[in-house]
Amino acid sequence: MGETHSSVIPCFGLHPWFVGKCSSNWLTVLKSFFETVPSAAVGEIGLDKGCPQGKAVDFVTQTQVFKQQLELARQLQRPASVHCVSAFGDLQEILKEMGPFPAGIILHSYAGSAEMVQTLAKFGAYFSFSGFLTSVKSQKAKRILQAVPTDRILLETDAPDALPRVSPGSLVWVPGDPAVPEELQKQLEDQLTLDRVLQYVSSLLEISEEELAQISCKNTIRLFSYPGSKLC
After folding, report:
1. How many Å apart are CA 51 and CA 73, to the nearest integer?
2. Would you give the DSSP letter of residue 186?
3. Sheet of 11-12: strands edge to edge?
4. CA neighbor of 82 nearest in space, from 28, 115, 45, 126
5. CA pair distance 227, 96, nearest whole angstrom
6. What single DSSP character describes residue 152?
7. Spatial distance between the Cα atoms of 74 and 81, rounded to a whole number of angstroms
8. Which has the closest alpha carbon to 103: 75, 66, 129, 127?
9. 3-state SS, residue 92
10. How confident is the model at residue 175 (pLDDT cuts 50, 70, 90)?
11. pLDDT digits over 10-48, tens only?
């Protein structure tokens, strides 16, 4: 897809759910991917103490593999997309130990507290919000969003895992409708999800959808404009 679409930037990484299944030379293999695709970023990597798949993997091993990949991202001067579930305290300690990441760390589908935002941002974190945010109590969601610096806000779909809660009136197509070609259904799902996230986040921040879209787009372009990126 990255070769076909100029807007698609590949990312390579070992997800915490699969750490227990990796080979002994996993890091060498991972590095070879970046040699083959030098425009790629790092991810999805991370820590998971909450999901069943994450709980099934030794957390010490998760932490070791995560640190190695963060160090690789630093060496490559690439942003890293981070999956973090029920482990934000651990993440914060690791960042304090390893120091800031100027290329950026994307906390994808952010589910941490408002109180942690300032410290995480200090180490280079960007905060990406998905449909998951609509399942959080609106007052809590608003506090989180208001704590995030404007230049660190990102939006994402994370579909179909984090589809937003929607009102019946907002549904504009029926999944599986034979009138919709199969190749278009995923595109429609992602677009509708992103539109809903945009609407919800802008309403909580009390800014227009247009302003938020411009902020998120500007932040995304800056984050992915690293040396060797397709955007440079």
Report:
1. 25
2. H
3. 11-12, 41-48, 80-85, 105-107, 125-129, 153-155
4. 45
5. 26
6. G
7. 13
8. 75
9. helix
10. low
11. 999 999 999 999 999 999 999 999 999 999 999 999 999
